[in-house]
From TrEMBL:
Family (UniProt): Belongs to the glycosyl hydrolase 29 family.
InterPro entries: FUC_metazoa-typ, Fucosidase_C, GH, Glyco_hydro_29, Glyco_hydro_29_N, Glyco_hydro_b
Function in brief: Alpha-L-fucosidase is responsible for hydrolyzing the alpha-1,6-linked fucose joined to the reducing-end N-acetylglucosamine of the carbohydrate moieties of glycoproteins.
Protein's recorded name: Putative alpha-L-fucosidase
The keyword Signal is assigned to this record: yes
GO biological process, one term: fucose metabolic process
Organism of derivation: Trichoplusia ni (Cabbage looper)
Enzyme Commission number, as recorded: 3.2.1.51
Length: 485
């Protein structure tokens, strides 16, 4: 009778905890739907993170534009050619390959995109295991991939492809049940309106009012993106860009107010301080748990975001390098945004396709340790730096999505992803020892389910006997799942 009473008490406490978490989640949803945010950072920062973004984990970034025509150096070709102190190689490139007096604008008709098949792109991204796609609607060159009402003859409909590239890809991506987002550069290197504001030390806002804001409103109202990825903010403070006004409109009145997420590039001294998720800087991966949701945007071509014709194979990330970024980032509470640069013809070169397909194959086996996961109490194992942890729990914490499990959380599984197969097929770990010591956990390898693994505990460390590697399904990194019996 006493045992039944104790069991009843535990059940009541568990149900109370679940009800409490449900009340909190319902309250956060109500706040998101009903609150109007003031155009000040302290209020904008209180917005809960939309759940879809934290659960997605994997995104694809696409840098595509007129810079894809010279495809030399990087997507910064124009400014490196015209305004860099180290521009000799760009000057020589133009002298050797183009007639005297050739201008950057003359590249635009060569940006043909004749082989651009948005459906094929979207299918590739879906097979890669990505859950969202972010396309450069406009890079720093100012050329828009949509028919901007403020970029006459400098957009993909008026010159070059003669197509609304943003609209076509948005439709194709959504047909694969992926989220669609847009990158948009706030500034434009050689836009005379922007340069006039710059000469005034940004005392005037003519560019912001007549070019930037109309373009962003057109993008949001027409394409309804789930991500607005801002860039090109570093020359002026946020008050010049009217960043807080823009975000207040996005969160309060835009057609995507409940779903959209934005990054942290909204002016001098803003990165890492404000935004739904933080980028901090390109290719950012701190290797430790952060308090705020963040994203690691990195390139498959280690040297450039845009396509480079002179790229060599040893400059392309291997699948193991990509998985290292994915696993370590997700373990530490981040998302990955994996960048590829298409050609001017609209093709994604085979080596990029191969890397994305290999990632998708890995995620088809190991994805449950990635999608919808949360940071665990440890990220990197104390004695094994090649092992990273994640976990799954029943409730989503919108106000603090990178938080480790609390006492009120019900953890459904712990995952240990190992990036290197150990010698003798014995994995040594420290941080899960206490859980295995309790005797209530069983261990399986994803892809080899049903084959429960044996372990021994010695001096606070656990030695787990792995399966014969020849029988293991996963080919690159391997995931152990710890859950209760």
């Amino acid at each position: 009778m006493l045992k039944l009473l104790i069991l009843s008490v535990f059940i009541c406490l568990a149900n109370a905890s679940i009800r409490a978490n449900t009340v909190v989640n319902n309250f956060e949803n109500e706040v998101r739907q009903n609150k109007r945010y003031k155009p000040i950072w302290s209020d904008l920062d209180t917005r809960p993170l939309p759940e879809w973004y934290d659960k997605a984990k994997i995104g694809i970034f696409i840098h595509w534009g007129v810079f894809s025509v010279p495809s030399f150096g990087s997507e910064w070709f124009w400014i490196n050619w015209k305004a860099s102190k180290n521009n000799k190689k760009y000057i020589d490139f133009m002298k050797n390959n183009y007639p005297p007096g050739f201008t950057y604008q003359e590249f635009a008709p060569m940006f043909t995109a004749e082989f651009f098949d948005p459906t094929a792109w979207a299918q590739l991204f879906a097979k890669s295991g990505a859950k969202y796609v972010v396309l450069t609607s406009k890079h720093h060159e100012g050329f828009t991939l949509f028919p901007s009402n403020r970029s006459f003859s400098w957009n993909a409909v008026d010159v070059g492809p003669g197509r609304d590239l943003v609209g076509e890809l948005a439709d194709a991506v959504r047909s694969q049940n992926l989220k669609f987002g847009v990158y948009h550069s706030l500034f434009e290197w050689f836009n005379p309106i922007y340069l006039e504001d710059k000469r005034s030390k940004f005392a005037t806002r003519t560019y912001t009012e007549t070019k930037l804001w109309p373009d962003i409103r057109q993008l949001i109202n027409k394409y309804k993106p789930s991500v607005l990825w801002s860039d090109g903010d570093w020359e002026a403070h946020d008050d010049y860009w009217r960043s807080t006004d823009l975000l207040a409109w996005l969160y309060n009145d835009s057609p995507v107010k409940d779903e959209i997420v934005v990054n942290d590039r909204w002016g001098i001294d803003i990165p890492g301080k404000h935004g739904d998720f933080y980028n901090y800087q390109d290719r950012y991966n701190p290797g430790k748990l952060l308090k705020h949701k963040w994203e690691n945007a990195f390139t498959v071509d280690s040297k450039s975001w845009g396509y480079r014709r002179q790229m060599s194979i040893n400059e392309v990330f291997t699948i193991n390098q990509i998985l290292n970024q994915v696993v370590s980032t997700v373990s530490c509470g981040g998302n990955v945004l994996i960048n590829i640069g298409p050609t001017k013809e609209g093709t994604i070169i085979p080596v990029f396709q191969e890397r994305l397909l290999a990632l998708g194959e890995w995620l088809s086996i190991n994805g449950e340790a990635i999608y919808g996961s949360s940071p665990w109490h440890s990220q990197n194992d104390t004695i094994n730096p090649k092992v990273w942890y994640t976990c799954t729990k029943t409730d989503y914490n919108a106000s603090h999505p990178t938080a480790v499990p609390s006492k009120a959380d019900r953890v459904t599984a712990i995952y240990a992803v190992m990036l290197k197969w150990p010698q003798n097929s014995v994995l040594n770990l420290a941080d899960v020892t206490a859980y295995l010591h309790s005797g209530t956990y069983k261990v399986e390898m994803l892809g080899n389910e049903g084959q429960y693994l044996n372990w021994n505990i010695t001096n606070g460390q656990v030695q787990i006997q792995l399966p014969d590697k020849a029988t293991v399904v996963s080919q690159h990194a391997w995931t152990l799942r710890f859950n209760t019996k």
